[in-house]
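Team,

Forwarding the record for the chain on the shared tracking sheet. I've put the sequence and predicted structure together so nobody has to dig through attachments.
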Amino acid sequence: MTETLSESRQQLVEATPGRIRSVVNRSRMIDLAIMVIFVLAAVWVMSNLWRNLESGYLVNAGRDQSMWEWFFADTAHALSQFRTPLYSDLLNYPLGVNLMANTAMFGISMPLAPLTLIFGPTPAYAIGLTLGLAGTAIAWYWTFSRHVLTGDSIRTKFAAAAGGAFCGFAPAMISHANGHPNFVGFFVIPFIFMQVIRVSRGTKPVRDGIILGLLMAWQIFLGEEPLLIFTMSALVFGAAYACSDFAKARAAIRRSLPGLAVGAIVSILITAIPLYSQFFGPASYDGVGHGQAGADFGAFTTLPTESVGGDSNGAEFRMNPTEENAYFGWPIVILILGGTVWLWKNKLVRAGAAVIVFMGVLSLGSELVYNGDHTGITLPWKFLAHLPLFESVLESRFAMGAIPAIGLLLTLGTYRALVEIRDPRIPRRIVPGAWLIVLAIASVVLIPTRIDTVERPATPEFISSGSWERYVSDGSLVSVPVSNGEEVRAMQWQVDSDFAFPIAGGYFVGPHSVTRGGIYGAESRPTSSLLVKTKETGQIPAIDATTRANALTDLQFWHADVLVLPKADDDNALRQTVNDLVGFDAKPVDDVWVWDVRSLVSGKTTN
């Protein structure tokens, strides 16, 4: 950093006004070129989805793409109808869904609402993922090039670009790009960090505090779980950095208090009502239990599956394709270990190393697991797992809190290597040369591959043609099986009908009626469980008077007007089961089987 400052001063002393303008213009062009590269890289990663916005579906998204598209579409629909986007009874009818308590991501879905209304939710979803990758890389590049390194040299820009590229396209980021825009959209995080530093100077506490509050509020509407994870990273970084000079740290904390107070007030004013709705409003819940979700220690040196050097056998260390949170790969591990030793005198490096170790250990969960073997060694997460807020976090995701620290280390190490490799005064340039070689290897093997897509099932003609209007009065449409965490087709039907009817069930997070703990999807009812089992086994269950009574009670609960089953070669078991439950045969309409149950449930009270 010292060399860069000297270089910059020398340029200013010797430069003519024309040369100054030339340097500035060149710097801006380099910035623009790097940002364009990041955008193109993000578009490349998501290109399969971009090429098929009509019917493309991310192959590893599971039900998440349907859920996110529903959230984006419902937000746009709510704003167009002048109703609150915080809650909707169109899903999980009649209980509804608390959307602030889900990942509705209002920080993107609201600005993109006009586009969603015009073109549908899939383009908005693709923008969210693409913008997340590119925006995060650009934001960290800007931070590293403006606040970590100083100067406009090619070396400065390249080093900052190396760090920014890792932050935006780290293996965990690519993994989450399979379906989680809230875990790739970290472009506000670096500006929050830098704004906290500005607040700590105490020069303009009101202005700086207001900006901090606005940034915090925006991030809350982008993702609260990432905010918690990266706040922990920032606290560890700040504490480690403060160890270098406690007196300065105490003075900075005192100076920051007025600005932090202003920021807290601004953030609370903006988010108070949404957060109240999230924790105390209709369909709110107390937390989501995930069980053991720590990373395997062997994952850290494993190359990610969706990269040039990746191996599909490495999938053994992940929960699912969207959770390769600790997959950094052996070249990055070598750079972290070697760079920490090489650059140890730098306070930023020591603080960054503390973050990497702390967040890495947290991500391992309550017990150390190595290559699938449980060691019995208890880890710190055991003492945090049941605390408020922490109980809902997948602990392996704490590894993502180390990504900015790794990006910082890559930036500082790359800059020093570029300086020393060309400095004739340094007789031995083995270390900087080795750094650049390993960095080049890491850059190649970690190049992400394009995320695969498949064709999603088409919406039935019964929905797209409007035939459903003859069967839905003022109640709900119930899909067969009932929409749940595994069956989400009805959510797509509803979006394609412009939310013309409510549906029973759905995929979301809501409360258990007894424990108030969060569960995925609607709480199971006797009939929904029966139909799921029928689909899984392909066997027609025995139907008796109790089963029929339960079915009638459930239909009343859902305010059901019609049950709908798309025609398929293997639909016989489900069709015959519903025939037996309601007491009459299905009617073929267009490409579905229909049971009009309005007369069956009319005049009955809701359970």
